[in-house]
Every structure is written in structure tokens, then in C-alpha cells.
Design goal:
The complex is a heterodimer of chains A (196) and B (380).
Chain A (H helix, E strand, L loop, with lengths): L7 H19 L4 H6 L5 H6 L5 E2 L9 H7 L1 E2 L1 H14 L4 E8 L4 E8 L4 E3 L10 E3 L4 H11 L6 E8 L4 E9 L22
Parallel strand pairs in A: 1-2
Antiparallel strand pairs in A: 3-4, 3-7, 4-5, 5-6, 7-8
Chain B lengths: L3 H68 L2 H25 L3 H30 L2 H10 L4 H123 L3 E6 L4 E4 L1 H7 L3 H4 L8 E3 L2 H12 L4 E9 L5 E13 L2 E11 L9
Antiparallel strand pairs in B: 1-2, 1-6, 3-4, 4-5, 5-6
Chain lengths: 196, 380
């Protein structure tokens, strides 16, 4: 019995369908591309990561080009990259890390002051990639913990340098402490102040 | 007007509602405390984990330094620096976690001092390795022989862990007591509610029984009333039948009296004697046809006229006798007199008077006049 013969038209159709994927594989996004993008905004930044996979890395934070080339990373890779790219474009960014000891996990996001929202790697594939929140660390931590249906234990604002690979804790808020004693308690007043 | 049962049961239901609300408030309060307790447990574990991480990072930095001293490889130097940075991060977080617990905060401060000293020592060796050569490094390492500083750090971290574990034990005990209190609260609330519900049920049952008794009494009273009404109706029916019979008899009597009256009238009108009905003042009020026939006066001409207009006494004595007899309320028979007709002629006649009485009082009289037919005709 003879096998089915594929016509030239069918080959062309298959090639046409595969072309976008081939182009995407050939065109690898780089750290430099992101830094030089003149139209960079938090939403635009998030749009580059919609098809990225999630995986942890043996080192705390991946090299940005490695992250972009492998299209695989975790929350802190995404948050730190967003912090570096958006800060360069003039946005006020803050790196926030929270720990949920009861769930034995931590998470990191990049808060963008102008947007009053944070970029979360877990929301990268959604059209609403920015999560609105009050700027207080306690409020951000509560919102993130809610998204995991967990209690948070402590949350820190930190900085990270690709050059030295060193994280620096700016301040830490502890869930069991009275909100009034939070290190950022007096920083945000009015509508943005934490309520609890 | 409010029903009595409502007045009795309403406070009981309000009390039940108040107990339910109190139990609910206590339960919510307890849930919040449980969440807080859970947060504290997580917090304690977090302190222990961070302290462990700090210890690991210090040891890691120490190991990386020794490797760097042996190999001089920059990657080992970088690993040592990275481990020290991580240790610094762990220390900062541990400080933050214990800043509201004075005893633990002091312990962390002590650990921080020791880690800082160890970090300075390691950085010094790295500098010596890069600038001073092996002798300087060897001297520095020989000063640290036995790793006494590391043991002190380890011991301090262990003490911190132990104090955190004691806190954990205390919080676990508090959580257990809290749960126990909540159980008692809920069960006491449930038992009280059940008792109050039973009491309200008893009150309602009592009220239902009272209503049943009342309804029974009302039914008995209605039955008695109905019996009395039937008895009274029978009496009234009998009375009505008797009155109907009496009315019928009275009707028959009246009819008989009417007949008798008509016969009497016929007799009076048919007699040849002249009959006058007089008032007390001897004025004529009625007369029979024989008067018209004998005198020529019509009834209308004589009614209201004195009797003397047609009947005159034969003497003064006779006239007085009629008046006296009427005044004395006695009869007088055949008193001689004269009957005068319309033409003025007179004829001898005899008058008799019978007084008319209403009970004992004389109200008039009936005068009958018999004309003397033997005497000659009317004289002018």
C-alpha cells in the first residue's frame, strides 16, 4: 500500500504556519533590546514575557540575557529585570520580596510607583499584567499573599545589582508587628497609606 | 394589645439571640486570634529559618575563604563575598523579625556583632591573600585556630533558636487554651440556648393548654346559652300563641259588642219614645229619630240645645226634680212635662232620666220622653 503523497501546496501551507515560530526562535530578545526600547512602559515590558516558562534557577537571580534567551525563569528574574529596565526609562520602581513561611515559599514583584501597581511574573500571560496596590509594603504583601491564598510572614524592599549579584535589604515589614511600627508607616499618607 | 405569651416568650427569644450573637462574636474573635497565632507560629519558624540560613551562610563564607586561600581562585573569593552578602541579608531580616521582642533582639544584636567581626576577619584575610602573601594569611588563620569565633556564632544562634522554640511552646500552649476556651464558650452557649428554647417551648405549651381550657369553657358557656335561648324561644312561642288566641277572642268579643251596639242603636231608633242623650249641663248631645218625628226639629237643630228647648216641666217642681235626680245620680221615672214641637205646639208627656256614669262620676244622662197619646193633640 502506498503512503499518502504531500502536495506542494500542503508543504507551503505547513511552512507558512511554522514561519512565525521560526522567526520567533531566531529573533531572541536581549537585555540591550529592552533597555533601548524608546516606548518602554510597564505594560509593554510585561507583554514581552507572555510565553515565558517558569522554572527556578540554582542561583538567586539569573543573568538577564540568559533569562531572555532561555525564556525561562522565576519571579525574581522578572522583577529584577523590570526594575532595571523601567528604572532606566525613568519609572520609580521598588523590588518587593515576601515570604510565606506557612506555604514554604517566597515571591518577588516589582512595584511601579507611577502606575500604583506591581508587575508579577505569575500574571505575565494575562492581559491585565499589572496588579493595582497601595505602595505600602504591608499592602503589597497582603495582596500578593492573597493571590497565593496564604498568610505572609515578612516582606522586604530590596535592591539588586547585576554587576555585584548582591541583594541589599532596604527595609523589612513583619506581619505580626503593629502596622504603625512598620518602617514605611510614615512614608505613605492619605489614600495610599496601609489600612492594616 | 400585646398577647401575654408574646410578653413571656419574647424576652426568652431575645436572650437566645443575645447568646447566639455573643457566641458568634467570641467565635469570630477566636478566629482572628487563631490567625494571629498562626502568624506568630510562622513568624517564629521564620526567625529560626533565617538564623539557620545565617549560620549556613557564615559557614559557607568561611569554607569559601579557606578554599580561596588555598586556590586563589577569584570565583571562590566571589563565593565568599556572596555568602557574606547573604549572611548580611539574613541578619537584617532576623533583626527585623525580632525588633519587637527585646530579649531576642538583644540576642540578634549580639549575633550581629559576632557576624560583623567574622565578616571583617574574612574580608581582612581576603585582602591579605591578595596583597600580603601567604605568611600574612597563615598568621591570621593561625590566630583563628579552632574556629572559636564560629563556635560562638553557632552557640548564639542555637540559643536564639532555643528561645524561639520556647516562644513557640508558649504560643502553642496559649493556642491550645484558647481553643479549649472557645470549645467551652460554644458548648455553654449551645446548652444555654437549648435550655432557653426548652423553657420557651414550655411557656408556649402552657399557653396552648390555657387557651384550650379557655376554649373548652367558652364552648360550655355557648352550649348553656344556646339551651337557654331555646328554652326562652319556646316560652316566647307559647306566649305568642296564647296572645294570638287572646287577640282572637278579643276580636270576637269586639265584634259581638259591635253587633250589640248596632242592635241597641236600632232598638233606640226604632222605639216610639223620644230619647235624648244629655250632657251634665242638660244640653242635648244626641237624639233618636222619634224626636224629629214628634217635634219636627232636625237633629242638627237640637244638638247642643238645652233639653228645655223641647221638653218643659209641667211644673217648677218637675223641672227641679230632673236636675236634682241628675245631680244626685239617681234615676227618675215618669216625671210629667210638656213636649214642644217646632211649630210651638205642646203635648203632655212623661220624662224619665237615667244618669250616665263614668266610674263614680256623672258625665251626662239619658232622658226618655213618652208622649201621652190619650191627651188631645198639640195646643197653641
Amino acid at each position: 500500500m502506498r503512503g499518502a503523497k504531500v502536495t506542494r501546496g500542503q508543504w507551503l501551507l505547513l511552512f507558512g504556519l511554522a514561519l512565525p515560530f521560526l522567526v520567533a526562535r531566531l529573533y531572541a530578545l536581549t537585555y540591550a533590546d529592552l533597555l533601548s526600547d524608546p516606548k518602554m512602559t510597564p505594560r509593554r515590558f510585561a507583554s514581552f514575557f507572555r510565553d515565558f516558562a517558569w522554572d527556578t534557577h540554582p542561583f538567586d537571580v539569573q543573568d538577564p540575557d540568559q533569562f531572555l534567551a532561555t525564556r525561562t525563569g522565576d519571579c525574581i528574574d522578572y522583577a529584577v529585570l523590570a526594575d532595571h529596565v523601567l528604572r532606566r526609562d525613568g519609572f520609580g520602581t521598588r523590588l518587593i520580596r515576601i515570604e510565606m513561611i506557612g506555604k514554604d515559599m517566597g515571591h518577588a514583584v516589582c512595584y511601579v510607583t507611577e502606575e500604583k501597581a506591581y508587575l508579577d511574573y505569575n500574571n505575565r500571560m494575562y492581559s491585565k499584567s499589572l496588579v493595582r496596590s497601595s505602595p505600602a509594603i504591608r499592602a503589597i504583601a497582603t495582596k500578593i499573599a492573597d493571590s497565593f491564598e496564604a498568610h505572609w510572614t515578612f516582606a522586604s524592599e530590596f535592591t539588586y545589582s547585576y554587576k555585584t549579584s548582591v541583594k541589599k535589604i532596604v527595609m523589612t515589614v513583619v506581619e505580626t508587628d503593629p502596622p504603625g511600627t512598620d518602617p514605611d508607616a510614615n512614608r505613605y499618607t492619605g489614600a495610599g497609606a496601609p489600612r492594616s | 394589645m400585646r398577647d401575654k405569651v408574646v410578653t413571656r416568650v419574647l424576652p426568652v427569644f431575645l436572650l437566645i439571640a443575645a447568646i447566639i450573637v455573643c457566641v458568634a462574636v467570641a467565635a469570630v474573635h477566636n478566629i482572628n486570634r487563631s490567625v494571629t497565632g498562626s502568624d506568630w507560629v510562622n513568624h517564629t519558624h521564620s526567625v529560626i529559618l533565617e538564623a539557620e540560613a545565617l549560620k549556613s551562610d557564615v559557614y559557607l563564607a568561611d569554607g569559601a575563604l579557606h578554599t580561596f586561600v588555598l586556590t586563589g581562585n577569584p570565583r571562590d573569593e566571589s563565593a565568599c563575598a556572596s555568602a557574606l552578602a547573604d549572611a548580611d541579608e539574613d541578619l537584617e531580616i532576623t533583626k527585623a523579625l525580632t525588633r519587637n521582642e527585646p530579649a531576642q533582639a538583644q540576642q540578634v544584636a549580639d549575633i550581629g556583632g559576632m557576624v560583623g567581626a567574622r565578616s571583617a576577619f574574612l574580608n581582612g584575610i581576603m585582602s591579605s591573600r591578595s596583597t600580603g602573601g601567604p605568611d600574612a594569611v597563615r598568621k591570621a588563620l593561625s590566630d583563628d585556630a579552632g574556629g572559636a569565633a564560629l563556635h560562638r556564632i553557632k552557640g548564639a544562634i542555637e540559643r536564639l533558636k532555643n528561645s524561639e522554640l520556647e516562644l513557640l511552646t508558649e504560643r502553642d500552649k496559649a493556642s491550645y487554651l484558647q481553643a479549649q476556651t472557645m470549645r467551652y464558650t460554644v458548648w455553654i452557649g449551645v446548652v444555654l440556648d437549648v435550655l432557653l428554647l426548652a423553657a420557651s417551648g414550655w411557656l408556649i405549651q402552657d399557653d396552648i393548654n390555657a387557651r384550650r381550657r379557655l376554649a373548652g369553657a367558652l364552648q360550655d358557656a355557648n352550649e348553656k346559652l344556646e339551651a337557654k335561648v331555646k328554652e326562652r324561644t319556646a316560652e316566647l312561642e307559647a306566649s305568642n300563641a296564647r296572645l294570638t288566641a287572646e287577640n282572637l277572642e278579643r276580636l270576637w268579643t269586639n265584634q259581638a259588642l259591635e253587633h250589640q251596639l248596632r242592635y241597641n242603636n236600632l232598638i233606640v231608633e226604632s222605639v216610639s219614645d223620644l230619647v235624648f242623650v244629655l250632657t251634665k249641663a242638660l244640653n242635648i248631645s244626641r237624639l233618636n229619630p222619634a224626636v224629629t218625628e214628634e217635634t219636627g226639629f232636625s237633629a242638627t237643630e237640637l244638638v247642643g240645645q238645652p233639653l228645655s228647648r223641647v221638653v218643659r216641666a209641667a211644673s217648677r217642681t218637675s223641672e227641679d226634680a230632673l236636675a236634682e235626680a241628675l245631680g244626685a245620680s239617681r234615676q227618675l221615672r215618669d216625671c210629667p212635662g210638656l213636649l214642644e214641637d217646632k211649630r210651638g205646639g205642646t203635648r203632655p208627656a212623661y220624662a224619665s232620666i237615667v244618669p250616665l256614669r263614668d266610674r263614680d262620676k256623672v258625665v251626662g244622662a239619658v232622658v226618655t220622653v213618652r208622649v201621652d197619646r190619650q191627651a188631645p193633640g198639640p195646643q197653641k
